[in-house]
Request: fold
Amino acid sequence: FPACTGLLDKGDGLFVKMLFGQLDSIDHDALLSGHNLCAIGDGTPGKWELFQFRDAELVQPDTYVLRNRLRGQLGTEAQQLNPWPPGSYVVRLDGTPQQIALTEAQRGQARHYRIGPADRALDDPAYQHAVIAFDGIGLRPYAPVHLRMKKQGGDRQYSWIRRTRVGGDRWDTPEVPLGEESESYLVRILQNDGSVREEIVTEPEWIYTALAQSQDNLGVEFEFQVAQISASFGPGVFATLTQAT
Reply:
């Protein structure tokens, strides 16, 4: 089931049957250093969540229960399904899989791939053929965090903190590197009737004026959403703050 990012997921154990290889427990420091990183997904290019686990218990031959997990790692919190169904794929990211090199012009284009054991010829029967178009989600900005709202008269002032895909693990700098050509965000107000107000801002704050609220004829409840914009990808993952009038 989905779980909060940044906190240990102490929910029910995840049962994983390995086709080959083994899984080992690690200590807490190793977990926070990025070890035992795995991907769970449905096998399609875009639906994978990265997670880590601390404890692996062998309960049957080749079958482990993984506990004390860190979920939605490396910006994949939006990929958590509700829940990941039995039969999902789990891949241990031990450094063996390599990133496919794609130029900017090749993003979104259907390309032909031969997939199989690297030590066999490409025409070996073990190889499979697939036509896949990759969106380049490695360029997608992470969702902002720490959304806040405070009222100033009839206005609503929203603020947030951006994240970064590049160099974001430092603790000795005032904020993380921008990682984009320029700083901009897409903010929007989404109502239950489907109506949307959208604006682009260049700093991590936005004022929803009393006049704009009146023009939008707000219902009892609405959502404030914000996503960082990348010149290469466009708007990234939206963070949401549910509001009441």
Summary: The chain is about 5% helix and 40% strand. Residues 116 and 124 are 8 Å apart (CA to CA). The two ends are 31 Å apart (CA to CA). Helices lie at 28-32, 210-216.
